[in-house]
Amino acid sequence: MVDPEVVAQELLSGWGRTSATLATVHRPNDLEHIVARVAAPGPRGLVARGLGRSYGDAAQNAGGDVLSCGNLDAVLAIDMEKGTVTVESGVSLDSLLRVLLPLGWFPMVIPGTSYVTVGGAIASDIHGKFRHGSFADYVEQMRVVTPAHGASTFDPDADAEPFWATSGGMGLTGVITDARLKLQPVETSRIVCDTERTHDVDDCMQRMLDGDHDYRYSVAWIDCLARGGHLGRAVLSRGNHAVLDDLPAAERSSAREYAPRTLLGAPPWLPNGLINIASVRAFNEMWFRKAPRTPHRRVEGIKPFFFPLDGVRDWNRVYGSRGFVQYQFVVPFGAEQVVRTALERFSAARIPTFVAVLKRFEHDSRSLIGFPISGWTLALDIPTSPSLAVLLDALDELVVEAGGRVYLTKDARLRPELLGAMYPHLDEWRAARAALDPTNALRSDMDRRLDLSGAGRRTA
Amino acid sequence: MKDALGEVQSVLVLGGTSDIALATARKVVARRGARVVLAARKPEACDAAAAELRAAGASEVDAVAFDGTDFASHESFVNTIFDRFGDFDLVLVSFGVLGDQDRAEQDPAAALEIVQTNFTGTVSVTVPLAARLRAQGHGTLVLLSSVAGERVRRSNFVYGASKAGIDGYYQGLAASLAASGVHVLIVRPGFVHTKMTKEMKAAPLSVSADAVADAIVRGIARGRDIVWVPPAMRYVMAGLRHLPTAVFRRLPV
Q1: Contact (CB<8Å) B86/A56
Q2: CB pairs below 8 Å between A and B: how many?
Q3: Gap from B83 CA to chain A (nearest CA, Å)
Q4: B10-248 — its CATH code?
Q5: What is the mean pLDDT of each run of 10 residues along chain B (253 residues)?
Q6: Looking at chain A, which residue has its C-alpha nearest residue B219?
Q7: Contact criterion met (CB < 8 Å) for B222 and A18
Q8: C-alpha count within 13 angstroms, C-beta hemisphere, residue B13
Q9: SS3 A252
Q10: What is the CATH number of the domain that holds A152?
C-alpha cells in the first residue's frame, strides 16, 4: 500500500538561515510519489531537498513545491566483494557510516559534516579533506527522475552527459532517488592524525605542498583574525585511516565501532551579536593554543577528525536570526596571492570569522558545473552585514581573474553575471539540463537568483 | 530573488514619482542591476527618473500607468504587472498626497482626496498585491508611512489620520504575512525635504530623502518591521503619544 505523502506549507532557508521563503513541502515515501510529482509540476516548479545543509538557497523554492527526501532512507544493498553500497537518496552519511564502518567499509569522499544526504552529496558533487576526487567520482550508477524521461538510470560513462549534468547540478536536472557508491576498505573507525601549528599562511601552504602526499586527508584551520606577521597562522591537521596495529591492544576488539552521540544542542533562540570580534578572537586563540606547539601524532575518532562541528546540533543558531554566509572559493595553483589577499582583507575588515578552512584539490570535478579544480580552496563563515556585499563582490573579481570560482552549494549572494566566467562549461550544462527538463519543471530560489538554468527570468 | 545580504533583483514602485521611493530605488539597483517598474498616474512623468535609475545601474526600467484612487482598476492592475514582469523582490508603496489642511477642514472633497489616496487607495491596491506576494512566497513590501500617524496632530490631522489608518492596516498585514516568506517594512519618516514639502517650513529633526532611502535599504537587509527616520523620532513620538491631551494641545505641533 502506498502511504499518502505528507504535505505542509513551510518556510525554508539554507544552513546559513538567510532569505527564508515559503514552499509546499512534500515528503515522498517512494519512487511512485516522486514520479507523479515530477510528471505534474505546479506552476512554480519543484526541487528536491535533503537535510538542508546547503548554506544558501539551493534547496528551497518560493511559492512552489519542495520534495523533502528524508523518508527515502533505505540502504538497499551492500556488496562485500566489490565494495559498493546502494542506497536511497535520503540516506544521511551519518546513518551510512553507522552501517558501513562495522563492516569495514568507508565512503571514498567524506565532507565536513555527516548530516548531508547522499542525494545532496551528488547534486552538489561535494568534496572533503581527500584531494583526489569528489563525491560523484565514486558514484557507479544513479537513478534520477527527470521531467523528460521519468525514472532513468545513469551510468558515468555510458550516460556521461546526463550523469555529469546531474552530479553537481544543484537539483535542477531531476530528483535523485538512489545511487550505488564505491567504497574503500578500512580496518578501524579511527584516524591517525598529525597536528602542527604553522606560523603564517605561506608557511602553511608550503608545509601542505611538501607533506600532503603522505596523507589521505589534509586540512588547515586558519585564524582569520591574526594580523601582520601572524597573518593566516594555522593549525594543520592531516591523517590516514588507522590500521589495527595503530590501536592499543585493548581497543582492537572494538576497532570498527562507530556510534557517536551529539553532545549538546544550541537552544532554539539565541540573541544576535554573540558572534563578535571579542568572542571570535577568544575562540580562535583557544583553537590555536589547543593545538600542540610541536608536531604531534595521535589516534582520533572519525567524528572529531571529520565532523568537529557535528557535536553541537544546530550550531548555525549561534549566528542569531540574521544568519550567516559561507564564502568558499577555489583558485588554481599559482594563484596563492588570492588566498593571501582574501585573508588580508578579512583580517583588515575586522570581520568576526571563526577559523577558516584551507584545503588543496589535486583533481578537477568531472561535473559540468562542479566546484573542485586543482588548486587552493578557502572557506569561511561570516555573519551577514550589509557592508559584506562590497567586500565579497570585490573578492569574486580576484577569484575570477585567477581562473577560480565560488562554490554554489555555499553561495547565497554571488553576482549572476560572474557565473559564466567561473563555470566555463555552463552552456554545456544548460544544454544537457534542458534536454532532461525541457519544460523547466525543476526550479529553486538559487536558480531564480542566479539564472543558473539560463531559462531567462523564471518567475511565474 | 533577494540574496542573503539584502540585494534585490526586481523592484516595483507604486508612486513612481516619489522622491523617497526613487532615492531608495537608485540605491538598490546599484550592485545587482535590478529591474525597476515605476507605476505612476502619468507614466511620462517618470522619464527623468527612469534615466537616473538606468545611470545608477538598473538593467531595465519600465513606467506604467497607475491611479491610486481608481479602486476598480487595482486588482487587474496588480495581476497584469505580475503576469508581465514576474516576481517582485521589493515593492515600494509610496504614493500619497499631503493635501491642504485648511481646505480639507472646510471642503469635504479636499478631505476625501487625502483619505482616498493615502488610505482607501492604498488598502485597495494592497489587497491584490499581498495576495500575489503570498503566492510567490517571498518578497519585501515597504510602506512609506509617517510619524504623523503615531499621534495625530492639530496642524495636519487629515493627512495624519490617513497615515495612522494605513500604518495600522500594514501592522496587521505584517502579522498576517509573518509566516508567508513576505517581509513587511513600515517606514516612519519625520519631516523629509522633498517636492511634497518644499513649500513648508522644515520641522526639527528634518532629513533628506537620501537619508530615508539609506534607512530603508538597511531595514530591508536587516528584516526590520518598522524603521524611524531619523531614529530619534521614535522617542520623540513616544513622548508625544503619552503626553496628556491637555498638554499636547498646547504644543505648537
Answers
A1: no
A2: 94
A3: 7
A4: 3.40.50.720
A5: 94 96 96 94 96 97 98 98 97 96 96 98 98 98 94 93 97 97 97 88 90 96 94 92 91 82
A6: A386
A7: no
A8: 30
A9: helix
A10: 3.30.465.10
